[in-house]
TrEMBL record:
Pfam families: DDE_Tnp_4. Its main location: nucleus. Keywords: Hydrolase, Metal-binding, Nuclease, Nucleus. The keyword Nucleus applies. It comes from Parnassius mnemosyne. This is DDE Tnp4 domain-containing protein. The keyword Protease does not apply. Belongs to the HARBI1 family.
Amino acid sequence: MEMSSDSDVEELLLLYALSRSQRKRVWVHDINQKRKDLGEYHRLCRELASHEDRFFTYFRISQDLFEELHELLIPIISKCTTNWRTPISTRERLVICLRYLATGDSQQTIAFSFRVGRSIVGGIVKEVCTEIWNTLQPEYMPSPTEETWKQSEKGYRETWNFPNCVGSIDGKHVSIKCPKNSGSEYFCYKKFFSVVLLAIVDPCYKFTVIDVGSYGRHSDSGIFENSIFYRQYIHGKSLLPDKPLPGTEEPVPHVLIGNEGFALKTYLMRPFPRALATQDERKTNFN
């Protein structure tokens, strides 16, 4: 396309230069402009530092653990200061995230309390949670090894008198709002919409493996058999080599233990049906 004259070219170049020079308008509600004077972080949270018990109730973690976590996250969640605005500090970002997790309040409620936008809360929670997982998971919840299962079996045998057991497995339905256009995928047997947290714990109640996010309509057993853990550690494999139970000589498999929601397998033990257990004291004791 040819320009009609040099003046047309100059006009276009001028308009382009003006558009590039215009700064984006940043609009902040009058209430949120008072964040540093009246926001929850700048008032209540500062006072909580002088009261360890109240601090723990508010955040669900101790001050020492908070400071340790903050030091790990500083280089990851910090934001650059620009000519337009000063970013929310790393400490306040962590506070907003932990308060959201500790209370279960809506993001809008948290936004009002801290005098920030609701979308800001959503972005902070998503980012900080991701970085907490990326930072802590390799150290505190690494992929289980053979030694992990051996230590777990020892704990179940000595603490709970259950030899050849390497973990307890169960699922938890976490209530959610029904996602758009999801049909009945998230509707669970408890008559609400949910995603499922499936977890295996050791004899000290510590998480060994987790699987998060499956549809609420799926059973615990179905979720387990479709999990990455099942494919990596169970399907066609064994967690540990078979060994005899105390007082016997024939090797038997190591197992996980679960409730009635799981199918009986060579690698998973479940309780006897309640009707049978009430007629047999040994089965009642086993359950």
